[in-house]
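Hey, I'm writing a tutorial for new members on how sequence and structure tokens pair up, and I'd like a real worked example in the thread rather than a made-up one. If someone can provide the structure for the chain below, I'll link this post from the tutorial.
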Amino acid sequence: QTGYMQQKDLLLPWRSVLDNTILGLELKGLSKKQAREQALEYMEAFGLKGFEHHYPFALSGGMRQRAAFLRTMLMDQDVVLLDEPFGALDALTRIQMQEWLLQLWESLSKTIVLITHDVDEALLLSDRVYLMSARPGRATLVLDVDLPRPRHYEMVTTPDFSTLKARLMEPLRAQTQTFKFQATKSVGQAGS
């Protein structure tokens, strides 16, 4: 019922990009031919056209993530969970992937739940942000992001974006200060 993409792409090294993207469809019982035809329709939109028959070792990190995302999206679930999908990427590739996801999201008509530790990423990509506490994990703040769509990366420097970021950073910083105090207190007790 829910599509799920982990932080690592988890592409199988012995399968081509095309065959990696159809893995879920094959497990669902679709024939390899039908699954490939379905995946090929999306290769250009996912930035993979021309790389269908390459193997994962020949791809950049961003391309590997796009292949993993296509594999997830081909399952055609209404809700898609993305667990730090861009966390392992360098800063430039991460920005490119965020912009790509913004463009693609408009055409997907899916609910996407994104888990991220990056405040800018959360604000740029989301309509609503849930700030989670440390153990036990619970929502300590719910922030509606009323930035206009379509969104673009240049928005991160606007006053509206900065205001939203400040509203998220204040409780987040307070939470880390509390954690530091508790950790220091524990270390002090252990040494007694």
